[in-house]
Design brief:
The chain has about 325 residues and is of the alpha+beta class. It is about 20% helix and about 40% strand.
Length: about 325
């Protein structure tokens, strides 16, 4: 995707407020007549807010990448307010291509070749966020200036310039949404003022309209028949199991930490979900196969409490080293999406 290194979590409220206070100090009111140089500390605080907003906000939008004579238009859907950072990027021109992200794990869908590629542990993000490497080098290598307020994609944005302190790097121009701290435009220029690269939103919608389901690939169901590596297959099967089952009323403190789906014989399968409060773990097994001798209700097997029920012709078993009420509440809260 021509290095569209769209990298996109933290949800620390005090950092968010700190960033907005900093922006309000310099950016509000009428347009500035000249740029103001920030101290190294204030510059880092401001740019950390940009990085935080790119990872933690929910937003959808269309952006254009210009690199030399090459132009590319993409649609992005980002969900950052839940327990996982979820994202989907779809190329809108040329050959179809789709990238999905779950935290640091990426899948690249290439439907024309019927191929799925996986990339694990990708911690770095860029537009509309900033990478950790960018934040680490700002104070040492750039002077940071705050300039005028512009209007981009229907939103008011503050212009920030990163001016290199030496001749070993290029100048960067950023435009930051005043209300949210999200980066909505970025440019890079040579020392001869030649535009090297530009990325900018042409439309952007920031808010709680984004759901996790919107970040799933449209090719997910068909892709199991495509060429892919082991990690990609595992991620797609995990997403399928998440889509089918959920616990809508887990006991306080218990969160889902794992999900697996395994084919047994033919169309028969087993889904396993694991919930934990950090100390104790509870496993849920959902079987589609014929289960002779299955007895619903509570039971005790050694140190384990076990709860069994039938749900939509599926055999559900919940077990763990926890009180009987815990496995029963989890089992009774299991629903099919």
């Amino acid at each position: 995707m021509n290095k569209i290194d769209i990298r996109v979590k933290r949800s620390s409220e005090h950092i968010y407020v700190l960033g907005l206070i900093l922006f309000a100090t310099f950016f509000c009111g009428p347009a500035l007549s000249q740029s103001i140089k920030l101290s190294q500390h204030d510059a880092l605080d401001a740019l950390q807010q940009v990085a935080h907003s790119g990872r933690s906000l929910n937003y959808t939008g269309v952006f254009v990448l210009q690199k030399g004579d090459h132009f590319e238009t993409c649609k992005i859907i980002h969900h950052g307010s839940g327990s996982q950072e979820l994202e989907k990027i779809e190329r809108l021109d040329g050959d179809p291509l789709e990238i999905t992200r779950v935290n640091d794990n990426i899948l690249v869908y290439v439907p024309s070749d019927k191929v799925v590629k996986s990339k694990l542990g990708v911690e770095e993000r860029s537009f509309p966020s900033l990478t950790q490497n960018q934040l680490l080098t700002v104070g040492e290598n750039y002077d940071v200036y705050v300039g005028d307020i512009d209007r981009i994609a229907g939103r008011f944005a503050t212009h920030i310039t990163l001016l290199p302190k030496d001749k070993l790097r290029y100048r960067h121009e950023l435009w930051i949404d005043q209300k949210t701290g999200l980066q909505i435009k970025a440019q890079m220029y040579t020392d001869r003022n030649e535009l090297v690269e530009q990325i900018m939103f042409t439309e952007i919608n920031i808010g709680n309209h984004v759901t996790p389901a919107m970040t799933r690939s449209r090719y997910e169901a068909n892709a199991l028949g495509w060429k892919m590596d082991r990690d990609a297959r595992k991620q797609i099967k995990t997403a399928a199991s998440e889509r089918l089952w959920a616990v809508n009323r887990p006991p306080s403190g218990f969160k889902q930490v794992m999900q697996l789906q395994k084919q047994t014989n033919g169309a028969e399968s087993r889904v396993q979900l694991v919930f934990s409060d950090g100390f104790a773990a509870v496993s849920i097994f959902i079987d589609s196969r014929r289960n002779n001798g299955f007895r619903a209700g509570l039971a005790r097997e050694g140190s384990l409490n076990v709860y069994r029920r039938v749900l939509d012709d599926q055999f559900v078993t919940v077990l763990g080293d926890v009180p009987a009420d815990t496995v029963k509440q989890i089992g009774d809260s299991l629903v099919k999406k």
